[in-house]
């Protein structure tokens, strides 16, 4: 038998390595921008076409390369950043593997122009599928410009695997913003298809945060600054009254390298203690500086994860630092919802359930005006009675929403919502009318009688389903009526969100908004959906955009995504108390839906309980 093992040809090895390093256009963005930073550039310009699929170009004014280095930079494991194994444990540059350029050049058409300030002439090198096509002297500014064209042109399977332009662009924006955030002292710009999306002059971190997240965060930033011998923490966290319901404004950097860490996220969130509602995301941009010998950044090839030698210590220190920052800026007063007088005045804000709810969005006829409802005062008293001493029960169930038969929750059934409701009004002595009425438990579920038993309806899932179908219709051919605003409002969005909104503006307007572009990243709101006019227009729009971004990965297509996002944002929430007519209306509409069984994201809208089955469970 002959021997069968052979070394792979260089270009094949490079392509395999590229599988790790280059996942999508945004990976190229990250690698090229980090190289520019390592090269000591003070100005870094990113140019992309077709969400990076046609072109990713980074132009820097850094140190440039000699002709030999330029040629060498495309070799695998060629790096100027470490020399020996021990350097691996003290890395101060973004790159160190010497893999990026070799990998990129294996799966794209790459053109590099580079010149050191001291050289008269620069060099131009063109590499395609790992082979050098051109190498020649050229006139060019000092620094380096690298263009990466037609990524994966030679790997059709991977090219086809790329997501739609909005998704890929989203990833590029994320990478760009992270690098720009970590280096506020440098100039950055970003052009996409000839449009300038970011222009970030050098400044301090606060200015950079505001440039990227938008002017509204300026008054919401609390500085964090703590230092010990081994760890330094600097940056900003958001005040507790500023948070989002979705991820997006949370950034950790360890030695200027962006990292993802649920563990550290938890540390920050827990520093807010009760100041934040459950599943709210506070803003933070935090820099941890730590002796490089105490961390291992080698864990993952794309280097977003990191290992600390004492993770617990970092956790605690981070938590204390954030807590201290919030405390010393006097943003930790007792936000004691139990004492809020609003409790008395507005029963939909049941404090013990979900203190976080901003005014919940009411939808169309779901919520008749309460002051016109004669039972309102009565109900309120009863609701209060109902919840007295039941905080604990409500909270328990909150954690285990599936467990509706738990001991505590059954207590609810012992208290009737109103005296009138307990009356037997039927001569035949069968169920009273009220007992056939739908009944809400824990502000989350609706019990509805059916002949063979009862349904337990998840009010939020049901409401999302109803609205989703309605919005899809609206996007088809029945736009929703607009309520004109007396005073149009301008809205300045973060650049990334502005880009998104411009792309879907026509559709958004079909949902009842009347929004026009106002130059730059500004928009002017002339009107809002008529049936949602009670909700703050900014909040609604912000929620819709956040949801829309979250859904991008699902590749739903604009209309489906937007209908989902809008439905999610406008739906009746868990924790929102509903009157009987509201519940009835919700049930009627749910069963008029094409697909009443599940919410657009796949949650069950209701569960059926058969009497026969219940009897069996009781041993009957
Ligand atoms: P690494 O960054 O891990 O060293 P790369 O493949 O990204 O590996 O780059 C290889 C080498 O090419 C770098 O070590 C650096 O010497 C050089 N290089 C890459 N980009 C630039 C740039 N923009 N300016 C100057 N030198 C660069
Ligand atoms: Mg590099």
Topology:
Layout: H1 10-21, H2 25-38, E1 43-49, E2 55-60, H3 67-72, H4 100-106, E3 109-115, E4 122-128, E5 131-138, E6 143-149, H5 156-161, H6 165-182, E7 187-192, E8 195-200, H7 205-213, E9 221-227, E10 231-238, E11 243-244, E12 250-254, E13 257-259, H8 262-271, E14 281-282, E15 284-290, E16 295-296, E17 307-308, H9 311-328, H10 342-345, H11 376-387, H12 391-399, H13 407-410, H14 419-422, H15 433-436, E18 439-441, E19 445-450, E20 453-458, H16 459-476, E21 482-492, H17 495-510, E22 514-517, E23 522-529, H18 537-551, H19 558-570, H20 580-591, E24 606-610, H21 611-617
Parallel strand pairs: 1-7, 12-15
Antiparallel strand pairs: 1-2, 2-6, 3-4, 3-6, 4-5, 7-8, 9-10, 10-15, 11-14, 12-13, 16-17, 18-19, 19-20, 20-24, 21-23, 22-23
Helix pairs in contact: 1-4, 2-6, 6-7, 8-9, 16-19, 16-20, 18-19
Bound molecules: adenosine-5'-diphosphate (ADP) and magnesium ion (MG).
Magnesium ion is lined by residues 31, 34-35, 95, 100.
Number of strands: 24
Question: Radius of gyration, rounded?
Answer: 29 Å
Number of helices: 21
> Average pLDDT across residues?
81
Largest sheet: 8 strands, mixed
User: Which ions and ligands are bound to the chains?
Assistant: adenosine-5'-diphosphate, magnesium ion
Percentage beta strand: 15-25%
Helix content: 25-40%
- Regions with little confidence, pLDDT below 50 for 5+ residues: 333-432
Going across the biggest sheet, name each strand in turn. 5-4-3-6-2-1-7-8
Instruction: Indicate the overall shape.
Output: globular
Report the end-to-end length measured between terminal Cα atoms. Answer: 75 Å
Structural class: alpha+beta
